[in-house]
Amino acid sequence: MHPREGITEIFSTFVQFEADHFSHWAVEPKLHRSMRRCLEQSFKAPSSEAFWALYWYKLWQDSSPQLATLHLSAYLQETGYWTALQAIKKFTNPRYTLADYFQMAIAEVETVLQDFKPEKGASLKTYAAMAFSSLLTSSLRQRHEVDICSNWSLLRKISKKRLVEALQQAGLAPTTIAQYRLAWICFNQIYVQAVLGEKLPPPNRSVWEAIAKLYNTERHHQLTSLSSDCQPEMLERWLTNCAGWVRAYLYPPINSLNALKPNWELGEVQDDLPDLHSESLLSELVAQEEMQTRRSQRSHLHQALIAALAQLDSQSRKILHLYYSESWTQQQIMQECAMSQASVSRRLTKARESLLTALVQWSQEKLHSSPTSIQIKDMSMALEEWLKMMKGG
Question: Which residues, 6 or more positions from 57, have their beta carbon under 8 angstroms from its beta carbon?
Answer without folding.
Answer: 68, 72, 113, 116, 118, 124
